[in-house]
Amino acid sequence: MTLDGFEHDKAARIVAVDWAVLAEDEGKRLKALGVDEGAEVAIVHRGVFGTRDPLALRIGRMTIALRRAHALAIEVEPL
């Protein structure tokens, strides 16, 4: 299941990231923020308009904004 389709406020573990789908600089930024295989994450907020963009993602003690297109490249499993 991709991060985009995961439930709000439920914990998940990133099992794979399709880095080829992301631009190189975007991938580097996400890795620097800790978005990588094995990280535990949770969606804490979604945009309210039709695209539901952006997502607020909690990773560790940090909350980051993530585009829906990036969330589609991240495979997760529930914890």
TrEMBL record:
The keyword Cell division does not apply. SMART domains: FeoA. GO terms for molecular function: transition metal ion binding. Pfam families: FeoA. Gene3D superfamilies: 2.30.30.90. The keyword Ribonucleoprotein does not apply. Residues 1-78 form the Ferrous iron transporter FeoA-like domain. InterPro entries: Fe-transptr_FeoA-like, FeoA, FeoA_core_dom, Transcriptional_repressor_C. Keywords: Iron. This is Ferrous iron transport protein A.
